[in-house]
């Protein structure tokens, strides 16, 4: 087994965060009273609205900015955001769906081997930081992709990036480095 051989790694996307604007002022009190599946947080000045399909939670501000979390793909995030905009239209607001943007993608990937974290950190020093007293994982940053990877000794890697493509590229880039620091099976 070597780093160059093709290994199929399953990257499981656990959360996609997206933002869009409605281009109109939203009356949060009206949304709270007339909307379905809503929680009004008056002290913070926002409304949480949940959709069941796709499973998404949206944070709605009176300025018209909406943040959606909980989707498992970029397509599902866009579909959920459009459904949310439609439900706001049905409440009587002049909503125009604009400025949609995926801002964050969280994914998990399991390596088929365990990793020696101190060795990995030493060989990748400027990009990797490991503080075992504070956190059990190595924090590895790839500035060009704007991606951050949490690498655990079990071989589990949590990846945060701006989009799905960046997350997949980050896993491809990190694989040869973690392969060098894998634990040998006796």
UniProtKB/TrEMBL annotation:
Q: Which Gene3D superfamilies match?
A: TATA-Binding Protein (3.30.310.10)
Q: Which GO terms describe its biological process?
A: acrosome assembly; DNA-templated transcription initiation; dTTP biosynthetic process; spermatid nucleus differentiation
UniProt entry keywords in alphabetical sequence:
Cytoplasm, DNA-binding, Nucleus, Transcription, Transcription regulation
Q: Where in the cell is it found?
A: Cytoplasm; Nucleus
Q: Which GO terms describe its molecular function?
A: RNA polymerase II core promoter sequence-specific DNA binding; RNA polymerase II general transcription initiation factor activity
One Pfam match, given by its short name, reads TBP
Protein name as catalogued? TATA box-binding protein-like 1
Q: Which organism is it from?
A: Podarcis muralis
Phylogenetic lineage: Eukaryota, Metazoa, Chordata, Craniata, Vertebrata
């Amino acid at each position: 087994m070597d780093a160059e051989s093709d290994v199929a790694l399953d990257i499981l996307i656990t959360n996609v965060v997206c933002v869009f604007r409605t281009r109109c002022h939203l009356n949060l009190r009206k949304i709270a009273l007339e909307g379905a599946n809503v929680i009004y947080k008056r002290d913070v000045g926002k409304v949480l609205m949940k959709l069941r399909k796709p499973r998404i939670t949206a944070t709605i501000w009176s300025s018209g900015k909406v943040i959606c979390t909980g989707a498992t793909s970029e397509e599902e995030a866009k579909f959920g955001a459009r459904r949310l905009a439609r439900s706001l239209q049905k409440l009587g607001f002049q909503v125009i769906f604009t400025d949609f943007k995926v801002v964050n993608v969280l994914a998990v990937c399991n390596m088929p081997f365990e990793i020696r974290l101190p060795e990995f950190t030493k060989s990748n020093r400027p990009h990797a930081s490991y503080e075992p007293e504070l956190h059990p994982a190595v924090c590895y940053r790839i500035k060009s992709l704007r991606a951050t990877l949490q690498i655990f000794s079990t071989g589990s890697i949590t990846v945060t990036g701006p989009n799905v493509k960046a997350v997949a590229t980050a896993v491809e880039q990190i694989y040869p480095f973690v392969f060098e620091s894998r634990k040998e099976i006796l």
